[in-house]
Amino acid sequence: MWVIANDGTKRKGKITEILTNEGLEKVKVKEAFAGDIVTIAGIGDIFVGETLGGSEQVEALPAITIDEPTLRMEFLVNNSPFAGREGKMVTSRQIRDRLEKELETNVGLKIDFE
User: Fold this and answer.
1) Which mean pLDDT values do the consecutive 10-residue runs of the chain (114 residues) have?
2) Which of 8, 19, 30, 76 is deepest in the core (most CB within 10 A)?
3) What is the pTM of this model?
């Protein structure tokens, strides 16, 4: 599989799974067709708007853009008297790990780790 970046560069990649939606569930499929909305797994460094093709000669499609996020959140240390008494993911490291995992699948998410 060839990945054509928005700047025109080409690189090889391998798709390990193709998933489509049936209602709220994701279902594995063997192939997808033009017009299908799918989720692919296996290419970790792919970005929105890049073109996938079966050969190096495939012409890139026009890039699409996604609007910037419209919600801003800041996560701070909880210094209240009840800190750490509720919840499972209460440390900053656990929250960061969870947000990094979400970045892998949520293309509309932008996170600045400062």
Assistant:
1) 90 91 92 87 83 88 79 78 70 84 78 81
2) 19
3) 0.59
